[in-house]
Amino acid sequence: MGPPPSNSAPDGDSQRIADAGLIRQSVVKVFVRSAAPNWTSPWQRRPQTSSTGSGLCINVAKRQVLTNAHVVRDASTVRVRRYGDAVRYPARVRCCSPQCDLALLEVDDDLFWDGIGQIELTDEVPLLDSDVLTVGYPMGGDNISVTRGVVSRVDLMDYTFSPTGGERQPVIQVDAAINPGNSGD
Fold first, then answer.
1. Which of the listed ranges 9-13, 108-112, 139-143, 169-173 does the model predict with the highest average pLDDT?
2. Contact 32, 80 (CB under 8 A)
3. Residues 8-50: pLDDT tens digits?
4. CB within 8 A of 109, min separation 6: which ones?
5. What is the value of pTM for the model shown?
6. Around Cβ 82, how many Cβ atoms within 10 Å?
7. Distance (Å, rounded) from C-alpha 34 to C-alpha 156?
8. Cβ–Cβ contacts within 10 Å for residue 51, how many?
9. Which of 119, 122, 121, 147 is nearest to 133 (CA)?
10. How many CB atoms lie within 10 A of CB 7?
11. How many CB atoms sit inside 10 A of residue 64's CB?
12. Which amino acids are annotated catalytic?
């Protein structure tokens, strides 16, 4: 006679569920008001537009949030909202690289950082067929979205939003569903 049946997930699944909960707490929704340059009337800007994206809390001590450069392009105001919180906290764009489509935000408010964990970045390149979890705030809803998949390709690709062109950057292709608005995660 074996051990009694368990209603809990196996150890690996329990760890993945715990990791997903920790990640959700570190992924934020980014709210942007932007006004692009008007090249035909350089003394004016185009009308303001609103957009959203996603960001990752990567350094609690330095109060840094990582997002995509195209999310905050031409931003006049940027605010971030934590998972499960209604408050939108002001953020500043500290640096932006269109060559690799990354931007670093800074959030000064102590309440924003209260209880937030940070996502650890790595220099390691994932192996093909490695499990991935995508977490973000896609368009069409106000709640967080979580999808799973695998790494399906690791390659070099021309990847830039720079008007002067760019260079080949490492890219990781995944088969998990990533929808518009998930940018930044």
1. 108-112
2. no
3. 444 555 555 556 677 888 999 999 999 998 889 889 989 999 9
4. 89, 90
5. 0.84
6. 23
7. 31
8. 18
9. 147
10. 4
11. 18
12. 70, 101, 183
Whole-number pLDDT of residue 10: 47
Q: Which residues, including other chains, have CB under 8 Å from residue 115's CB and lie 6 or more apart? A: 25
Distance CA 6, CA 20 (A): 22
User: Looking at 24-63, which runs of residues are DSSP E strands?
Assistant: 27-34, 49-59
Distance CA 144, CA 138 (A): 8
What whole-number distance in Å separates Cα of residue 173 and Cα of residue 164? 25
Q: What amino acid occupies position 10?
A: P
Rounded Cα gap, residues 123 and 101, in angstroms:
17
> pLDDT, tens digit, for every residue of 122-164?
899 999 999 988 889 988 788 898 888 999 999 988 776 666 6
Question: Are the C-beta atoms of 170 and 156 separated by less than 8 Å?
Answer: yes
Residue 113 CA, distance from chain mean position: 17
Strands 102-106 and 27-34: unpaired
- Burial 168-183, CB ≥16 within 10 A → b, else e: eeeeeebebebeebbb
Kindly state the tokens that stand for 55. 């960001």
CA 11 to chain centre: 28
Using CA atoms, how far apart are residues 27 and 137, in angstroms rounded to an integer? 9
